[in-house]
Write a structure and sequence with these properties.
Chain B: This is Putative membrane protein. Chain B: Keywords: Membrane, Transmembrane, Transmembrane helix. The complex is a heterodimer of chains A (about 180) and B (about 170). By secondary structure, chain A is of the alpha+beta class. Chain A has 2 domains: about 60 residues; about 90 residues, 2-Layer Sandwich (Alpha-Beta Plaits), CATH 3.30.70.60. Chain A is about 50% helix and about 25% strand. Chain A contains 4 helices and 4 strands; from the N terminus they run αααββαββ. In chain A, strand 3 and strand 4 form a beta hairpin. The radius of gyration of chain A is 42 Å and the shape is rod-shaped. Chain B is an alpha+beta fold and about 170 residues long. Chain B has 2 domains: about 80 residues; about 70 residues, Gyrase A, domain 2. A 4-stranded antiparallel β-sheet of chain B has the order 1-2-4-3, with helices on one face. Chain B starts with 15 loop residues before the first helix and ends in a 9-residue tail after the last strand. The chains are: A alpha+beta (about 180), B alpha+beta (about 170). At the A-B interface, helix 1, helix 2, helix 4, strand 3 and strand 4 of A face helix 1 and strand 1 of B.
């Protein structure tokens, strides 16, 4: 410190007042012109951010709920979903029907749209079987078949000497490829 | 000629008192500028955060829509498959019931099952056997039931029984 400087020993009141004024003016200028407007904007933005965050969290929770619901549904209906996806093949169906009938043949009748997103094929099945029990087993197994198949009327059964010939309609449901 | 005993010293432009004030005001200003800078940075991070969150929310909403569509499809598939499976089971049961209904004395030759009708062709030892053992239960199931008999060479009766249900439900019992 400069030993000759006596400005601290004898404080000039005028200078002190002037510096104090300058300090107050500068501080106030910063506070009122810069900090307060920015803090206001900051608060508005923070509120906006929180609002958006809450909205997003709600949507996220909803999304998780839907995902849980979807995976639960998928798990519960694995067979049905895969059966609808599985394309119906006549050879495969005839192999399945061959377990119950001694002779099977299929003729396709119609193909039409069913309830917006499904396609319905109608086929005529002609078969020969030994006992009606085979027909029951065939109908029972149909619900576990790899495609969605419904046996439907008309059903014609005619007995020969040794076997029964059966003609019936089957309806196959697939997902419409456009959906 | 020297008029003073001490050597002259250069007078500083700012006294110590002034320097202290100037430094104090400068530090104060610096602090405020830093504080303001911090607020501005945080504001910009909020702004970008809002944009990111909005994008993320919109993406989640899209995924929710997709999930909803998939859930709807699975539910419709489930409903349709349940209907089909129950139809298959009912068909099986109705066929089983029909064959259980036929007594040992009567032989069926041909069965035609339609949605609303059942036509049976077969042989019965007597007309009464048919009327008591098969016609009675058939009449309880169907709204109309008509049977025609034809005498065979062996003395048995060929019969044609036409049974109908009047209504929309059809043969699902």
């Amino acid at each position: 410190m400069n030993s000759f400087d006596r400005s601290l020993d004898k404080i000039d009141m005028m200078k002190l007042l002037i510096f104090l004024m300058v300090f107050i003016i500068v501080t106030f200028a910063f506070v009122f012109l810069l900090i307060i407007p920015n803090v206001k904007d900051h608060r508005i933005l923070q509120a906006e951010y929180k609002r958006v965050l809450v909205h997003k969290t709600r949507v996220e929770n909803l999304f998780f709920e839907r995902e849980t619901e979807l995976s639960k549904l998928k798990a519960e209906n694995v067979h049905v979903i895969s059966a609808f996806k599985h394309p119906f093949m006549q050879e495969e169906f005839m192999r399945y029907a061959g377990k119950f009938f001694t002779h099977v043949s299929l003729t396709e009748i119609t193909k039409s749209e069913y309830k917006k997103e499904f396609v319905e094929y109608e086929l005529n099945a002609t078969s020969t079987l030994k006992t009606p029990t085979n027909f029951y087993s065939f109908l029972e197994g149909l619900n576990r078949y790899s495609s969605i198949v419904q046996a439907d009327f008309p059903i014609y059964l005619e007995s020969d000497k040794e076997s029964i010939s059966a003609t019936f309609k089957i309806k196959v449901y697939d997902l419409n490829a456009t959906h | 000629m020297r008029l003073s005993f001490i050597a002259p010293r250069p007078k500083p432009f700012l006294s110590l008192f002034s320097k202290m004030w100037v430094i104090f005001i400068a530090l104060m200003s610096l602090f405020m500028i830093i504080f303001n800078f911090y607020i501005v940075i945080e504001m910009s991070s909020f702004k970008s955060g809002v944009v990111d969150l909005t994008k993320e929310r919109e993406m989640l909403e899209l995924k929710i829509d997709e999930d909803d569509a998939t859930i709807g499809l699975i539910l419709r598939q489930k409903a349709l498959s349940e209907e089909i499976f129950s139809n298959n089971t009912l068909l099986k049961e109705s066929m089983k019931n029909l064959f259980d209904l036929v007594p040992d004395q009567i032989t069926l030759k041909k069965v035609q099952m339609e949605r609303n009708s059942l036509i049976l062709y077969g042989i019965s030892p007597t007309q009464d056997t048919f009327n008591f053992l098969l016609a009675a239960p058939l009449k309880s199931i169907f709204h109309t039931s008509n049977t025609n008999f034809y005498l065979t060479k062996e003395g048995w009766y060929n019969f044609v029984s036409i049974n109908k249900i009047i209504g929309e439900d059809g043969l699902r019992e």
